Amino acid sequence: MDYISGWCKSKRRLEGLTAIVTGSNTGIGKETALDFYMRGARVIMACRDTTKAESAKKEIENAKEGVEGIGTLVVEELNLSQLKSVREFAFRILAKESNINILVNNAGVMCCPEGRTEDGFETHMGTNHFGHALLTLLLLPRLKKSAPSRIVFVSSLMHKSNDVDLDDINFEKKRYDALDAYSRSKGANVLYAKALGIKLKEHNINNVMTYSLHPGVINTEIGRHFSDTLLTGGTWLFKYIIGFFAKTPRCGAQTTIYCSVDESCAEQSGLYYADCRVAPTSKQCKDEEIPAKFFDITTELLKLKKYDPFGDKDPERSLFEISNREKRISV
Predict the structure, then answer these.
(1) Ranges of each domain in the chain
(2) 100-152 residue pLDDT tens
(3) pTM of the entire structure?
(4) 182-210 mean pLDDT
(5) What confidence score (pLDDT) does residue 326 get?
(6) Is the pLDDT reported for residue 331 higher than 70?
(7) Alpha carbons 179 and 202: distance in angstroms, whole number
(8) pLDDT class of 28 with cuts at 50, 70, 90
(9) What CATH architecture does domain 14-218+249-314 belong to?
(10) How far apart are CA 195 and CA 180, in angstroms?
(11) DSSP string, 236-274
(12) 3-state secondary structure at position 132
């Protein structure tokens, strides 16, 4: 698959720029962090498991020891399934980093058993969408200040298989299906990237661009739940049979890298990509009204009505001092 897939050909350097890559201790996130590091960027490896992230950091640094023009790798803890962790990460980064130029919302879960995050969201939607949406909005004023900047959402072709149900975000009305839940959360990524791009233009912010993408079928750890939720032996089948025909993580990271650095898409915003070029989305994601509605739903459920992410001021902690009674989200 690597030989017939799209590759980012840009030689752009990233010295003096800061990039955040969520879920960068393994898979395409790790390859994305490596690419930015080789271009000279300061790369924040935002990961749930900092032990694994530190190991990945050392592996990259040791492999590239002595290479000229490399950047810096920094590990920071971030658990996207906990909004408290997202807020704490954002406040730490805003305190430490003067610039944020690239935000890659890469981390994700796939086909998990039915469950809820501690904030009350269905696991896929809470982790893949709401965690990244909150992170993006909290960092947006700094991204705006650091412009030109880019926000990249790693989605999936699977978003075409199931529409996001705006009336049942949390799978409270429909019987739970792991693949359906994953597909919805990936559709949420595409809708939100488009909606955010539109909102930025409405606020006359023309130098912060948004992107969503399908990286391809990649042989990574994301199939670890397949045996539990799809079919017996599913994890083995994905790793050793389907995985034989899949992209390598390095190849799978190319569209993410393309959207993050390539000059040819620097003026594009809100579009969806595959193999380093614009690709068609689902019918729902082509709609002009649904993304805006979904953006409003997201803002309401994240309790961000008192915060203006499109303004010049970074968020204040006092905005999130809510009572225990209000902490659990009801959708």
Answers:
(1) 14-218+249-314
(2) 999 999 999 988 889 999 999 999 999 999 999 999 999 999 999 999 999 99
(3) 0.90
(4) 97
(5) 44
(6) no
(7) 35
(8) very high
(9) 3-Layer(aba) Sandwich (3.40)
(10) 22
(11) HHHHHTGGGGSBPHHHHTHHHHHHHH-GGGTT--SEEEE
(12) helix
- Residue 227's alpha-carbon distances to 110, 181, 205, 303, in angstroms, are 12, 16, 45, 36
CA pseudo-torsion sign 266, 268, 270, 272: negative
Catalytically active residues are 182
The helix/strand/coil state of 212 is strand
CA distance 274 to 284: 18
Helix (H) or strand (E) holding 21: strand 18-22
The C-alpha atoms of residue 259 and residue 269 are separated, in whole angstroms, by 10
**Quick one: average pLDDT of 289-311?**
95
Q: DSSP string of 289-321?
A: SHHHHHHHHHHHHTT-TT--TTSSSPP-GGGG-
Instruction: Supply 239's token pair.
Output: 């790793």
pLDDT at 187 over 90: yes
Q: Cis (ω within 30 of 0) for the bond into 148?
A: yes
Using an 8 Å Cβ cutoff, are 121 and 328 in contact? no
